[in-house]
Design brief:
Blueprint (H helix, E strand, L loop, with lengths): L2 H25 L4 H6 L2 H29 L7 H7 L6 H19 L6 H11 L4 H14 L3
Helix pairs in contact: 1-3, 1-7, 3-4, 3-5, 4-5, 5-6
Length: 145
Amino acid sequence: MNGNTTKNRILEKALDLERFSKELSGVLPKTVEEYKKSDILIKSTVERRLQLISDTEIDILALLYKELKLKVVGEDLSLISLFSDIFKKDENEKIKRLRDLRNKLIHGYKSEQFDEEVFKIAAENLDESGIISEIKHVVNSKITD
């Protein structure tokens, strides 16, 4: 795959990230108390948008990984850790927290504080401009046409 095609795919996925975070901000209640009292439709929508954001971030990292020819990787968290020297630390940590929550959602691991955790991470992901900026910087500076 040539660099220009990869760039376009990554930038399209960055637009998806922006759209998913806007959709999330449109449904997320203002407080954790409101979220806890929300009906299943609101909670399901919030959880699904978080999954989509996380999966899209991993898709982007995988495309960057291939294009940048980074060392061997095994799983999502090791893929994320490869970008610890490329992305800002807070953005990398945000991706890790979201991926952890996504895995809990997918596998049904829910604790008593699950709603609080979902709300906190959802609030962190209402604005994906930081990671989108990081992605665009890497794409424009490290991927050649």
